[in-house]
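Thread: iron/sulfur cluster complex, take 2
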Amino acid sequence: MFKVCDLTENVEQSDEPPSSTVSCRADAEEGSAAPEYGHLRKNGCWNDWKWQMSNRIRNLSQLLAFFPTLKNEIELPNVIKKYPLAITPYYASLIRRLDRTDPIFAQSVPQIRELENLDCLSEDPLEENEDMPVPGLVHRYPDRALLIITTTCSTYCRHCTRKRVAGTRETSISPRRLAQVSAYLNAHPEISDVIVSGGDPLTMPTDALEKVLSTLRSIPSVEIIRIGTRTPVVLPQRITDELTDMLRKYHPLWINTHFNHPNELTPESAQACARLANAGIPLGNQSVLLRGVNDNPAVFEQLCRGLVRMRVRPYYLFQCDLVKGVEHFRTPLSRGIEIMEYLRGRLSGLAIPTFVVDAPHGGGKIPVLPNYIVSVSPTHTVLRNFEGMLVNYPEPGTNNAAIPQPGKHSLSSVWDLATGRSSAIVPGNTKRYQRRKNIVKNEGPAAVQEKF
Ligand code: SF4
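Output below.
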């Protein structure tokens, strides 16, 4: 087995405490109001990503200064010791309620339940460490590889699937390790798509990130480079012209980001996404289904609509992995299916992500859908749409005209559809059918037939 932490040779350690701390409104009423950042946002440093990084909430006293209501949660030091804490001032400023019903609070503020343990949970449920021929390089699918280039994030998400790695030490890939990765990729030309991940790659200095990208781009068989990052969500100030000027040199380059809740869609994050999109980088979004955060169909619809407005295509909705420390975020699988059922027909396909379970034991991503296939026969497949309409799809060469048609006692059943005796069963009370009936009523069937 390869150890992820081995990738951190010869690198600078940067886990110093912040050089200064942001202050908050000390008299914030418990459970009601968020810290006051108005004066900080006027500060010239607010838009400086390095200032945001060096002023992250990193320890318990800084956390309690922001969130005094946590003072009675005596196990928090143990949580932070096991799973590091970091929240950018920007992301903290999005908190609207000082309790766990707030989606930003829930995703960023440690909680005691992270120490819960169940038999089905593990540090590395996707068994990434087992699929690492070179430390940090996960080769699972035939044509793709995932490269972990840093263990640093600007904000440590409490639901992180790589809790075993993220923030345990804030380090980045060493030149020697990068050379090993390059050698492996050169020896495996079947890998054409490399996903650069972490940690969060965009927390690295631009020149250090460029070294990784230029190395990958120099490998003839690597066609596509993708970056997985939460930076547009938690540190949008990082998306500078300097960064995008560098990134645009390495096309075809794609970025997948990680928005989970509409409250994360801010003018700052929209601007960050616009900068990336204007640099010609296609943007996708990978959300995680999180109990109490986004496991609500209407909230998720709002997120998807907002993402598309920001030129970000909802790509995946992940069922929460079986990771130690995130049990309290897990939802039943049925909740995700319910959300997909709600979205289909309501939103353009462009705005609907694929709901997937990243299978334990390294099984990879398995799409999970509501069931749209109702019945199958050798001649017809019976499908249902989002409204509940049942329709048959004839197999090639099927001649419906040759099939005996229903007699007067026909039930217009699913069997009739599957055998080609009828072609659809239509619910009578949908808005669309009411509209259709009105059109036919007003214009007459002949006029409708003649359109176009
Ligand atoms: S940014 Fe990504 S890697 Fe970092 S803590 Fe969040 S989910 Fe984990």
